[in-house]
Design brief:
The longest helix has 28 residues. The chain is of the alpha/beta class. The protein folds into 3 domains: about 120 residues, Nuclear Transport Factor 2, Chain: A (Roll); about 100 residues, no CATH class; about 210 residues, 3-Layer(aba) Sandwich (Rossmann fold). Strand 8 and strand 9 form a beta hairpin. The chain is elongated, with a radius of gyration of 27 Å. Helices cover about 50% and strands about 15% of the residues. Helix 4 crosses helix 6. The two termini are about 35 Å apart. The protein has 17 helices and 14 strands. The strands form 4 sheets. Strands 1-2-5-4-3 form a 5-stranded mixed sheet. Strands 11-12-10-13-14 form a 5-stranded parallel sheet, with helices on both faces.
C-alpha cells in the first residue's frame, strides 16, 4: 500500500469511528500500511453495511465513488481523497456476516464480540482471522508464496485458539493436517486438495432453511440491480481533429480506471458488425469524396444497427461488469463533420439515429481556439475548423450530461479537470442509488 493509500485508510477509519459504527479490519490488517495492494477487507454489523458505513465514507476528507454490492450483506466501497480526487484510491471490501454464498461461517456479532484492538486497528480474534483467511485462499486459490507464510503467521499467533476454530469446521484428521501445515509452513497439500477442504468446510457451516430462502431472494434482487443500475461508466470524448481527444482520453482513463474492475478504450462505433481495425483513425479525413445519397442511406442503416445492437450486446454487459468504457467520437460526430465519414445524405436520418440509440453516461466536449488546434493539426481547412468548433460548443450547450472543457491547457491540467468531473459524477450517483441524501 502506498503512503497515500495508508493515509486514506486511516482517514476512512477515523470517519467510521466518528459515526460510532462497530467494525474491524479483517485478515490481520494490523500492519495494513505494509500491504502492497490498495484493497482492505473490513467487517461491520449487517445493519450498517449498505447505509451508515457508506455515508461515513462519503464525508469529511474522503469521497465515495463506487459501491459494488458483492453479496446480500457485503459491499465493495471505493474511495478517493476529496481534496485531490483520483490521486489515489482505496477499495474497502465490507462484510456483514462472513459467508460463502448462503453458507455462514461467522455472524458479524460473533466476530465483533471477540475482536481486539492492536495498535491503530481493531482486528478479529486470531483464530477467527485464520479461518477467514484460509477460507478465502481455499475459495480463490493460493496465488503467491506469501499466502503460505501469512497463514502460518496467523495460525501461530495463538495456535490453541486457531486449532479450536479449525476443529469447528473440519474433522479431526483434517484439522491435524492443517495444524501440521501451519507448523511446517508447507501448505502445498492443502493447496493441492483445496476443493476437498472447501467442501468439508461448507458441509459444517450452518445451512438453515429460512436463511437459505432469504439468501436466494436477496441474491436475485442483487443480480437484478446489477443489470438495471450498472456500476460501469460510458464516457465519450468529442471535438474537432487536433484538439487532443485521444491523448486526453488516455490520460483520463489512467487516472480513473482504478475505480473500476475493467477498462475498455474504443473509437466511434461499437464495431459489432466488423473488425475493430476497420474503424481506426484516418490521417486525412477529408481526402475522399462523399458517398452517394443511396450509399449514405445504407450507411445510416448500418450505423443504426451497429450502435443499437452494439449497446445491447457489448456496451451494456460491460457496464454491468463494472467496466470503464472511454470512447473518442460517437454518432453525433457525423452531423458535425459529415465529410470525415463520407456522408452525403441529409441531416434528418442522423437526427433520428441520435434519438434512437442510447447515449453514453457523459459526453466530454474538448474545446480550444481554432488557431491553437490548427497549429497542432492542419488536415482540416481553417474555416471548416472554426465551424466545427462552434458546432461542438452548440452541441455541449444543448445536450444534457455534457461537459465542455478548455483543451488549450496542458494534458495534465485537462485530464485532472475531467477526472474530477467524472469522479464527482460517480459520487453523486452512489449517493442517489444508496439514498444517502434521504437519511
Amino acid at each position: 500500500m502506498t503512503l497515500d493509500s495508508t493515509v486514506l485508510l486511516r482517514t476512512a477509519i477515523s470517519s467510521v469511528l466518528a459515526s460510532d459504527i462497530p467494525f474491524c479490519i479483517m485478515h490481520d490488517k494490523r500492519t495494513a500500511e505494509e500491504s502492497t495492494g490498495s484493497e482492505v477487507d473490513c467487517l461491520t454489523s449487517k445493519a450498517f453495511v449498505l447505509t451508515s458505513f457508506a455515508d461515513a465514507l462519503d464525508s469529511g476528507d474522503t469521497m465515495l465513488v463506487q459501491s459494488l454490492q458483492r453479496q446480500i450483506d457485503g459491499c465493495v466501497y471505493i474511495i478517493t481523497p476529496r481534496c485531490s480526487p483520483g490521486a489515489t484510491y482505496l477499495w474497502l471490501d465490507v462484510y456483514g456476516d462472513y459467508r460463502l454464498g448462503r453458507h455462514v461461517l461467522y455472524t458479524s456479532a460473533e466476530i465483533l464480540a471477540s475482536s481486539q484492538v492492536i495498535g491503530d486497528y481493531t482486528v478479529p480474534a486470531p483464530g477467527v482471522d485464520f479461518i477467514m483467511y484460509l477460507t478465502k485462499k481455499l475459495f480463490l486459490g493460493f496465488t503467491k508464496a506469501s499466502d503460505f507464510s501469512r497463514l502460518s503467521e496467523l495460525y501461530n499467533i495463538d495456535s490453541n485458539e486457531a486449532f479450536k476454530e479449525v476443529s469447528r469446521f473440519w474433522c479431526t484428521s483434517s484439522a491435524e493436517r492443517i495444524a501440521e501445515c501451519a507448523s511446517t509452513g508447507d501448505w502445498r497439500e492443502i493447496a493441492k486438495n483445496s476443493k476437498e477442504y472447501l467442501k468439508e468446510l461448507i458441509a459444517n457451516c450452518r445451512t438453515e432453511l429460512l436463511p437459505g430462502v432469504r439468501y436466494f431472494a436477496c441474491e436475485s434482487y442483487r443480480q437484478f440491480s446489477r443489470v438495471t443500475r450498472p456500476a460501469g461508466l460510458h464516457v465519450v470524448f468529442l471535438g474537432p481533429d487536433g484538439v487532443g481527444k485521444t491523448t486526453v482520453a488516455d490520460a483520463v482513463t489512467a487516472r480513473i480506471s482504478p475505480a473500476f474492475r475493467r477498462t475498455q478504450r474504443e473509437h466511434f462505433a461499437p464495431r459489432l458488425l466488423r473488425r475493430a481495425s476497420s474503424d481506426s483513425e484516418v490521417q486525412y479525413p477529408h481526402s475522399l469524396a462523399p458517398r452517394s445519397r443511396v450509399a449514405s442511406a445504407g450507411k445510416t442503416l448500418y450505423w443504426l444497427a451497429d450502435f443499437s445492437l452494439g449497446h445491447v450486446l457489448r456496451i451494456r454487459p460491460a457496464l454491468v461488469r463494472s467496466t470503464l468504457i472511454v470512447r473518442d467520437r460517437y454518432i453525433h460526430d457525423v452531423r458535425v463533420d459529415p465529410r470525415r465519414y463520407r456522408y452525403g445524405g441529409p441531416e434528418g436520418p442522423l437526427r433520428i439515429i441520435e434519438q434512437i440509440i442510447p447515449n453514453p453516461d457523459l459526453f466530454i466536449v474538448l474545446d480550444a481556439p481554432p488557431e491553437v488546434i490548427h497549429e497542432r493539426k492542419q488536415e482540416v481547412p481553417f474555416e471548416e475548423l472554426k465551424r466545427q468548433c462552434q458546432a461542438y460548443r452548440d452541441f455541449a450547450n444543448r445536450t444534457p450530461n455534457t461537459i465542455l472543457v478548455d483543451a488549450s491547457k496542458s494534458v495534465d491540467e485537462v485530464s485532472a479537470e475531467i477526472s474530477s468531473h467524472l469522479l464527482n459524477y460517480l459520487a453523486k450517483r452512489v449517493r442517489r442509488r444508496l439514498k444517502l441524501d434521504n437519511r
